[in-house]
Amino acid sequence: MTVTQRETSHAPSPETDAPVGVWLNGARGSVATTAITGLLALRAGMADSTGCVTDTGMLRDAPLVSWTDLVVGGHDIVDTPLEKKAESLVDSGVIPAPVLAAVRGSLPEVEQNLRTGYDARTETGPLAEVVDRLAGDIEEFRARHGLSRVVVINVSSTEPPADHRPEHDDLDALTRALADPDDKALPASSVVAYAAFRAGCGFVDFTPSTGARLPALEMLAQRERVPFAGSDGKTGETLLRTALAPMFTSRALHVLSWAGVNLLGGGDGATLEDPRNARSKLSSKSGVLPALLGEDVTAPLHIDNVPDLGDHKTAWDHVSFEGFLGVRMSMQLTWSGVDSTLAAPLVLDLARLTAAAHRAGHVGPIEELGFFFKDPIGTDEHALAEQAQALASWANGLDGRGDS
């Protein structure tokens, strides 16, 4: 299979301080394995960058590291070899067989960079020791490969929303709680964010989990002078909603209800079958329509696990709206997508953009990356066109020389 590279691909730039590490939490999962395989295919010239926003003309002036200068490592709590996981994704139609055949020989090199992650169900002892171990793995990875910086991206399974605690609002109090072996003061995603910041890395949460969305962790990011972004990658139904909902408001049409049903299988389907985990996903999706329509709207939303669908996701939406003279009308639509195939290029985009932000001296939440998320940190803007404009203006204006 031969592919012509797109004309807008970025050439390597000495101003990006290559190479850059991409540390994936959940590195053996479907999204991570698809991203890893896709990156290896891009580097080998066996795939083009369709789906990668950073390789479009919109971001042609952004100071981004090249695909060949991204080095991948990560944590996971399972030990399935990447090659076996990739084979299963070929069987389910996520990764084309010729692509895996072309990059299979490079997967062991990535495998050597994977380490055991934090499993809250089995690991004992104080969380401070967990943070030390995770941060140490990332620091060793950076040193071993001579990396200018590392971006940590959480692509692990969705976890339930975390109950608020006073320690979440104060970094000193949180640090003391982490030293107590009997105190599990942070959910797993926030432990990962803490470790990323401790290691001096930017952090991206591609999931709806708590991650860095705690005041104490923002304090830590500010102290360590690192950026972060999230949360919950916008790949399917919500992407469609953020493009279409502004159409109704711009044409003065009144939306009465917007109902949705999501059918999916695979690991995500099984995870979201647990109502506690589904609450995080439903919460991240629920704020989009009121923000875009300017008012509350009846918007029932269901997520159902259909195991035989695997990574193929179907979303049905029914929109009831009112026009001139109160005449009722409706719009119905179906989105059928392959979840990991849609998510993986965005993970790679976010690695490049977050590394560029870190290089340019950005500290704290990167609101301009809201384009990629259902529940963007640091901004209430959800309209896709406005988000794209903000992203382009920001990324193309980054100073590639920055503060190293």
TrEMBL record:
InterPro entries: Myo-inos-1-P_Synthase (IPR002587), Myo-inos-1-P_Synthase_GAPDH (IPR013021), NAD(P)-bd_dom_sf (IPR036291)
Pfam annotation, one family: Inos-1-P_synth
Annotated segments matching region Disordered: 1-20
Superkingdom of the source species: Bacteria
Ranges for domain Myo-inositol-1-phosphate synthase GAPDH-like: 236-340
Transmembrane intervals: none
PANTHER family recorded: MYO-INOSITOL-1 PHOSPHATE SYNTHASE
Family named by the database record: Belongs to the myo-inositol 1-phosphate synthase family.
Record's protein name: Myo-inositol-1-phosphate synthase
Organism field: Micromonospora chalcea
